[in-house]
UniProtKB/TrEMBL annotation:
Belongs to the DNA polymerase type-Y family. It comes from the Bacteria. It catalyses: DNA(n) + a 2'-deoxyribonucleoside 5'-triphosphate = DNA(n+1) + diphosphate. It comes from Sphingomonas aerolata. This is DNA-directed DNA polymerase.
Length: 422
């Protein structure tokens, strides 16, 4: 029998992070907006009860916000990332290993804890997370990741489980799976769900009972593995070593539309600078860079255009200055005057570890540039992002994202640390 796996999921994570430092948000409807204050990406239980859906544009919600006194906040990813670190620290004593699946979900390897009552074990973990961070969580326990996802969903939606669902019990597992829609199973996309429902497979339980050969015919080996996981056969263990990255992206929407090339290059330079920093952080170099930008696709009444070009990096590099130069070459080829661009980005692919990159015959000595990149990273790490920037990036950055309702950096900026006076 395989070792049990748990999935701990933070409830209404972005809102819960905000509430941890602002008690006035507790018990009232709260929504957190996406980049550029565009649409709702997190909602408190009170906001959900008012009918606010994930992805609702904020300009469609003005009347509802005003009528019900909904608190609206800009996203604060620095805070959410740091709170994730604290949640993981609280969970570490309760598992042999862990794998971060997303900013609010983590798989835990419970090997070695099988002799305990794992429901009580999970409840103790939830309590420690709550004490350390105030963030509420739910936990699902099972033999595979897919079943752990189902267990977590049951723990969140069914009050009988009191926040912890253990699907290792046959009767509980069958009851949950027979009531779980097949389209909501982790890994079943919309097209696959339609194929399955056409075949009469409407629940997770029915998918579990599908013949393996038929599952492969409907959804390739991916669906076949998913069926195996629903039967309690793990397709992989918790990944303590992250798989090699194949690509990387830095993209943003603009706070105000960009209409001239110099301002566009200011944005692309910032993204390329950040992309180089991420490459160096992971010890990688890139072989290709793509720069892209496009207009607002939700405004068909305005002129539309989207441009992108890819350039080869030869030799492969993680040097931010070389990435900026490559971004300029790509942007110059893709640029068209007369449009109001609302989003742009840098994509990197053909990534390999720096030590494995192919060498060129007349390659220059990069030691000096490597030291420069190291100094640049150290300055920005110590004094804050964008302390040291390139001239092309500029300092005004009128195109930067709107975040007019962002909360303070409670845990990462000394000036914003909460003060308690006794």
């Amino acid at each position: 029998m395989s070792a049990p796996i748990a999935l701990i999921d933070c409830n209404n994570y972005y809102v819960s992070c905000e509430r941890a430092f602002d008690s006035s948000l507790v018990g009232v409807p709260v929504i957190v907006l996406s980049n550029n204050d565009g649409c709702a990406i997190a909602r408190s239980a009170e906001a959900k009860a008012l009918g606010i859906k994930m992805g609702d544009p904020i300009h469609h919600l003005r009347d509802v916000v005003r009528r019900h006194g909904i608190r609206v906040l800009s996203s604060n990813y620095t805070l959410y990332g740091d709170m994730q670190r604290r949640v993981i620290a609280a969970c570490e004593p309760f598992a042999r290993d862990f794998e971060i699946y997303s900013i609010d979900e983590t798989f835990l390897d419970l090997a070695g804890f099988e002799g305990r009552d794992l429901v009580d074990h999970a409840r103790a973990m939830r309590e420690q997370v709550r004490l350390w961070t105030t963030i509420p969580t739910c936990v699902g326990i099972a033999e595979t990741k897919t079943l752990a996802k189902l267990a977590n969903a049951a723990a969140k939606k069914d009050a009988r489980f009191e926040g912890v669902a253990d699907l290792r019990d046959d009767a509980v597992r069958r009851e949950v799976m027979d009531a779980f829609a097949v389209g909501d199973v982790w890994g079943v996309g919309g097209a696959t769900a339609r194929k399955l429902t056409d075949l009469g497979v409407h629940t997770a339980g029915a998918l579990r009972d599908m013949p393996m050969k038929q599952a492969r015919a409907v959804g390739t080996v991916v669906l076949e593995r998913l069926v195996a996981e629903l039967r309690g056969v793990p397709s992989d263990a918790v990944e303590s070593v992250a798989p090699r990255r194949k690509g990387m992206a830095v993209t943003r929407s603009f706070g105000t539309p960009v209409c001239d090339f110099d301002r566009m290059m200011g944005a692309l330079s910032q993204y390329a600078l950040r992309a180089g920093e991420k490459l160096r952080m992971h010890g990688l170099v890139a072989g290709r860079l793509t720069a892209f930008f496009h207009t607002n696709r939700n405004r068909p009444d305005r002129p539309q255009y989207g441009g992108s070009r890819t350039v080869t990096l030869h030799p492969m590099s993680s040097d931010s200055f070389e990435l900026i130069a490559a971004a300029r070459r790509a942007a110059e080829r893709a640029w068209r005057d007369g449009y109001a661009y609302t989003k742009a980005g840098i994509l990197l692919d053909d990534l390999v570890p720096e030590a494995e990159r192919p060498r060129t015959l007349f390659e220059a000595d990069t030691a000096k540039r490597d030291r420069l990149m190291g100094a640049l990273d150290a300055i920005n790490a110590k004094f804050g992002t964008w302390t040291a920037v390139t001239a092309t990036q500029g300092f005004k950055r009128e195109w930067k994202l709107r975040s007019e309702m962002r909360s303070p950096a409670w845990t990462t900026k000394i000036a914003d640390v909460p003060m308690v006076r006794a």
